[in-house]
Design a protein that fits this description.
Layout: H1 2-15, H2 19-84, H3 87-94, H4 100-109, H5 112-119, E1 123-130, E2 141-142, H6 146-149, H7 152-159, E3 166-172, E4 178-189, E5 194-202, H8 204-211, E6 217-221, E7 227-230, H9 246-249, E8 255-261, E9 264-273, E10 282-289, H10 290-341, H11 356-401, H12 406-422, H13 426-444, E11 450-451, H14 452-470, E12 474-480, E13 488-489, H15 495-506, E14 513-522, E15 525-532, H16 539-548, H17 557-573, E16 580-584, E17 588-596, H18 599-608
Parallel strand pairs: 1-2, 12-14
Antiparallel strand pairs: 1-5, 3-4, 4-5, 6-7, 6-10, 8-9, 9-10, 11-13, 14-15, 15-17, 16-17
Helix pairs in contact: 2-8, 2-10, 12-13, 13-14, 14-15, 15-17
Keywords: Cell membrane, Coiled coil, Kinase, Membrane, Phosphoprotein, Transferase, Transmembrane, Transmembrane helix
GO molecular function: phosphorelay sensor kinase activity
Pfam families: HAMP (PF00672), HATPase_c (PF02518), His_kinase (PF06580)
Length: about 600
Amino acid sequence: MRTLRWLDMALQRINDIRIQKKLVISFIFVVFIPVILVGVFLTVSFRQTMIKDATQQTVNSVDIIRKRLADTLRMPMEISNKLLIDPRLKKLVNTQYENAFEVMMAYRDYNDFLDYTRLYKEIYNIRFYTRNPTIIDNWYFIQPDEGIRNTFWYKEALDKKQATASWVYAEDETQGNRSFLSLVRRSDFVEYRTSGVLVVDVNPQELNGIVSQELFDTMIYDSQGYIIAAKNTEWVGKNLNETEYSHSFKDRQQGIYDDIINGKPSKVIIEELMPEGSSNKLKIVSIFSVESIVSNANRISMLGFTIISVSLCIAFVLIYFSSRFLADRLMRLNKDLNRVALGDLHVTTSIRGNDEIGLLARQFSNMLHSIRHLMEEVQESNRQKNELQLRQKEIKLQMLASQINPHFLFNALESVRMKAHMHGEQEIAAAVKSLGRLLRKNLEIGGSDIPLQDELDIARYYLDIQKFRFEDRLTFELEIDPSCKHLLIPPLIVQPLVENAVIHGLETMEAGGNVRIRAGLKDDHLYIEVTDNGIGMSAERLQAINESLQDASDRREHRIGLRNVHQRLSLTYGESYGLNISSEPDRGTRIFFVIPTGGSMYVQSIDRG
């Protein structure tokens, strides 16, 4: 029910909008907004697809870089494995030489380091650190000085329990202290109870060649955060702490992340590589800004939105002028209608055309012709009607003049009652007695308040008469709080409710009809309720009755009594007081009201306060 009411209100509001505005609003909701929403949806989907494709492409590129890097680092690892078991190297670094000539002869016979750097492009340099005091430094075999011994990679290599390899970004004093990604590995000579540290430098050109062709910013860094290769060569050799990226991915694990880099939303892809036989990892990072990916999509979207906007503007202009032309024709027809409303029935419309408005104009002209013809007939009918009304008024005056004297009526009823009583017709006598009392009470009522007991007596007399009429079809009950019988109330506010219950609730019932009157005190207020178990009423009819209680122009007979009671209560006690009606089909009707025990003076004192 509430939904239907809401729909009715919505339709009424729509009907109140001018037709030109309706067409424009319809265009906005049916065409403009859907097109914009579809455009936004497609643009967002296009952007997301491009970002997804770029991310997947970058992930694939990083995976390729990881594989190429693993292949590049595999050769230094294999060479280190060979050197660790090379008996010639073991003998060279552990022999105690008598003089420099013996050392130079040993160096001349051992050219493996030089051969490896020449044969394999991945190898840039090889050197071996040994503590043999008889060795002479020759850029390949070096006695570590204090500076070397204090480096983290040298200490780490000697402190390891196993001779596993580590990949570090370290300076090579044999290359002018230039830094390289180097494989550092301890070589243990058990039979000599000595050890040394093997360092294999990776060719930086090979590393940079892996990332130089990437579309996005890509770099490789070691576990210490040193960048060993990058698309932007200016980053090589720097630590992440020295760059703007330190907060973005220094401590992050492998995965894909969203971040703000240089003030722009960006994607960060991190891939880890644990080279075979190594104890530490290398990380590969690729970064691309979302803007760089969607810039082309934005350009296409802007072009599409421009075309859509121009098309919508043209369509809007056409709709506007078409609706204006339509509205102008309707306004001309409205002016003709206004002239007719002012009494000019000789209007000739100038609207032409075969569309709906033209058809309406022709029907309007035909209607005017019919109205003029009917006016003539109505005038003749009114003349005859006026004559009839004059005659009816004369009859009413004669009836008023012959009205029966009330005392004569009471005496006549008393005579009828006594006659019935003498003939043993007790029910008839009781009914006539109740009728006489009812008439006397009604005639005695003036404009002042009466005790509740008197009002209930009137209701009881009425019910006695109706019970005589309906016999066993009607019963009634009165549940009255004795403490409220003396309270003053306006006259004739209960009897109309009882009459309504009998006539409209119980009259059509064949048996079992019941009317109950209840009166009591609740929080300094008098509560009066009239209920019946009659046919009840539907929700629609109940709503109509509730609305008619506020409508003084509603003259329907079956609602006059209820409306009079409701309006008298509201006028006497205030707008918050009046009848409350509830009903259900086949379950009866309940009518009640609550009024202050102080009467109308109580309400007036509240209003003044």
